[in-house]
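Sequence, structure tokens quoted for completeness.
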Amino acid sequence: MTQNLFIGIDLGGTKISTALVDASGRIVARDYRETMAARGQKVVVERMVDAARRVISEAGVVFSQVTGVGVGSPGPIDSRIGVVTAPPNLPGWKDVPLKQLIEERLGITTFLENDANAAALGEYRFGAGQGVQNMIYVTVSTGIGGGLILNGQLYSGTIGTAGEIGHTTVLPQGPYCGCGNRGCLEALASGTAIAREGRELVQRGVPTLIAALAEGNPERVTARLVAEAAEQGDIEAQEILAEAMAYLGVGMANLVNLFNPELIVIGGGLTHLGEKLFRPVRRAIERRAFPAAARVVQVVPAQLGDDAGVLGAAAVAMAQMASTLP
């Protein structure tokens, strides 16, 4: 008898989150541990496998009761063949056949997906996106990522790289992005971008509350510190946030015109800004997107929080296993 239990593994540069999940999205058992990426690929893979074994053991089930394993990994990856190609925050990883390595050790069918795509699928299946057909998930944190749910299916493109929302060009001669391009949305509206603008003010000696909160040390400036300064009335900090959110709104309006979604779900660390993020994004969509498309789209916060990664990874396995049924 099929037990409808799935393992979701959210692989990050600093942590591995693992959960045993049932078909309704209920987490039956969970494990959280450091990635130890500096110790190399073999150590990380073994930690992932051990975490999967641990949640099976804690739940009191056997391996044969687990239908599938889903892994959400930092990109770039090739989800078709289950290979992690060269993620910047996993040093030494190049063309790692992660699907095969985990499948061989656990004896359970395994699927690999980009972590942002996995989170998108998680929000669609268990979070804010339930009941819609066309949804875009955007995570706005240190970087900007995303995933596309089109006609009820995760769209990952020809080789699995679709949904790189953060690397759409918004300002052609803008600041350099970590990807090597200039003027990417990520280089203009992410936490990293906000911190960079605040740091530049401190370096130039501009007398702002940002500098005071950072005690004059540019290296202490973070997006959260800039937001704190803005909350306390600092004009320069407010301008930095306003500009970043205006660019984010431009990016979202572009997505509305491209995909005509019912829903844009925004998650990630910068959602702590609340309406300081959502209001400018909604306003930009109203002003810049086609009126008919702007009227039908809602922009809402993500619902799954810290569980988006593991629930999304489990949802990848659920979706893939369902698609293989006769």
About this structure: The chain has eleven helices and twelve strands. The longest helix spans residues 235-259. The mean pLDDT is 94.
